[in-house]
Write a structure and sequence with these properties.
By secondary structure, chain A is an alpha+beta fold. Helices cover 31% and strands 11% of the residues of chain A. Chain A has a five-stranded mixed sheet with strand order 2-1-5-3-4. In chain B, strands 1-3-2 form a three-stranded parallel sheet, with helices on one face. Chain B has a two-stranded antiparallel ribbon with strand order 4-5. Classes of the chains: A alpha+beta (176), B alpha/beta (92).
C-alpha cells in the first residue's frame, strides 16, 4: 500500500483494520497527530487529506491509498514554523500541547472551507462566494477540536490573526 | 475490531454486486461505522468502500437533487441546490 505523506511517497503493508492515525503514528513514526478519544469526538487526530480536514482515527489507512496526507510535521519545522504555529506560540494557544497539532491542521482546513464558501450551522448568507471568519463562525467551525487545558482564548486569537484576510466583507455571488 | 475483507468498489454495479455477499456492508464516510466496528458492535465480513464512487450532486427535472454515493456531508452543505432547499425550509 502506498500513500503520499507530507509530500513524500511511503509504502507499507498494514492490516486493513489499521486506522490512518495508527499508520501515521505506529508505522511511520509521525507522532504529531494524537490519539485522544479514538472515536471522532476530540479532534486531536485531525490531519489534512488533499487539503481537507479529517479525523484520522475514524479513517482506515487502506481507504486513503494514493492520497496526499499532511500532518503537523508537514506544515512546519523547528526554526521554520508555519505562521499559525508561530501565532499559537505568541498567543499562548496551548498549555500541554496535546490538542495543538489537531487544532492547527483543523484551522488550516477550516480556512480553505471559508474560502470555498462552505457554510456552517451559523452561516446566514448561504449564497456567499466566500465566508468571513467571524467570532461565531470560528467557534462553530472549530468546535470539533477540544482543548482540555482550556486555552481557547489564545487559540481563537491565533487563528484570527493568522487568517485576518478572511475577516474582510463578504463578496456576493453574482445572480445566476 | 474483527477481521474483514476490504473491497473498493470501482463502479455502481460492482458496489451492488459486492453488497449481495454474506456479511457485506458499505463504507461511506466511516463516522458511524469504524467506531462501532472497533467496539465490535458492527462486524462486517466484507467492507465495501463506496467512497470512490460519484461525488456529483445533480439537480433532477422534478426539482430534486441526486446525491452521489461518494458525496460528503460537507459537499452537500456547500452545494447551492441543497442550500436553496435549506433556505426554502426543506430538510436540515
Amino acid at each position: 500500500m502506498r500513500w503520499i505523506v507530507n509530500r513524500r511517497e511511503v509504502e507499507r503493508e498494514v492490516d486493513v483494520r489499521t486506522s490512518l492515525l495508527d499508520l501515521l503514528r505506529e508505522h511511520l513514526h509521525l507522532f504529531g497527530a494524537k490519539k485522544g478519544c479514538n472515536q471522532g469526538a476530540c479532534g486531536a487526530c485531525t490531519v489534512l487529506v488533499d487539503g481537507e480536514r479529517i479525523n484520522s482515527c475514524l479513517a482506515l489507512a487502506v481507504q486513503y491509498q494514493g492520497r496526499e496526507i499532511t500532518t503537523i510535521e508537514g506544515l512546519g519545522a523547528p526554526g521554520a514554523l508555519h505562521p499559525l504555529q508561530q501565532a499559537f506560540v505568541e498567543h499562548d494557544g496551548f498549555q500541554c500541547g496535546y490538542c495543538t497539532p489537531g487544532q492547527i491542521c483543523s484551522a488550516i482546513g477550516m480556512a480553505a472551507e471559508l474560502r470555498n464558501g462552505v457554510p456552517s450551522y451559523v452561516t446566514t448568507d448561504l449564497e456567499a462566494e466566500m465566508i468571513a471568519l467571524s467570532h461565531d463562525e470560528l467557534r462553530e467551525r472549530m468546535s470539533g477540536n477540544l482543548c482540555r487545558c482550556g486555552a481557547y482564548n489564545g487559540i481563537v486569537d491565533a487563528i484570527h490573526e493568522t487568517f485576518s484576510d478572511l475577516a474582510a466583507p463578504i463578496p456576493k455571488r453574482e445572480a445566476a | 475490531m474483527n477481521p474483514f475483507q476490504y473491497d473498493r468498489a470501482s463502479d455502481v454495479s460492482a458496489a451492488l454486486m459486492a453488497r449481495t455477499r454474506a456479511g457485506a456492508q458499505y463504507l461511506g464516510g466511516g463516522t458511524n461505522l469504524i467506531d462501532l466496528m472497533r467496539e465490535t458492535i458492527e462486524h462486517p465480513d466484507v467492507l465495501v468502500d463506496v467512497t470512490g464512487l460519484s461525488r456529483d450532486i445533480e439537480e433532477t427535472n422534478g426539482g430534486g437533487l441526486k446525491i452521489g454515493a461518494g458525496v460528503k456531508n460537507t459537499a452537500v452543505a456547500a452545494d447551492r441546490g441543497a442550500a436553496a432547499g435549506r433556505r426554502a425550509g426543506h430538510g436540515g
